[in-house]
Amino acid sequence: MKRLLPFLTELDAWVEELTELKQMTLDSRQVQAGDLFVALKGHQVDGRKFIPNAIEQGAAIILAEADEDQPEIELDPKFAKFNLDRTACCKVVSVPRLPKLLSEIAGALYHNPSHKLTLAGITGTNGKTTTAQLLAQWHNLLGGKSAVMGTIATVCTDKCKKR
């Protein structure tokens, strides 16, 4: 959880006792003990209505999308019985603009895997596929792992997934 604090500094006082979070999920049915559950207001279904389910399944902390009139991060008053009970396993925190923070939160939780990737884009009229395949093969011969995404298939080292 401490990895998330650059984005959620206001949570510092509430998360001292939390152990490391196991995973982040937006689906309450997939929540397991020690997970971070993110409850968003959806277009068809409000994910916040599944907060009690996530609590029952052992979520360590729940980030709930705040209503528009809430400017700051705060413990969600609707779940005060969980938030005020020191023995409770879960804190429910309302976060304004949560959808805009999701990629940063996920990156922090999972150690920013995209920072370890090298990306090459190839443009032009002719030779893009050949160039991409040659670069990927050379990279693999040098001991690296590579993937080539195209309109026909996505190739990751030895695996191929047709579109």
TrEMBL record:
Q: What is this enzyme's class at the first EC digit?
A: ligase
Q: Which InterPro entries match?
A: Mur-like_cat_sf, Mur_ligase_cen, Mur_ligase_N, MurE/MurF_N
> Domain Mur ligase N-terminal catalytic spans what residues?
22-107
The UniProt keyword set, sorted, is: Ligase
Keyword Ligase: yes or no? yes
Q: Name one GO molecular function term.
A: UDP-N-acetylmuramoylalanyl-D-glutamate-2,6-diaminopimelate ligase activity
Q: Where is the Mur ligase central domain?
A: 122-153
Which EC number(s) are documented for this chain? 6.3.2.13
Per the record, a Pfam family?
Mur_ligase
Look up the domain of life of the source.
Answer: Bacteria
Q: What is this protein called?
A: UDP-N-acetylmuramoyl-L-alanyl-D-glutamate--2,6-diaminopimelate ligase
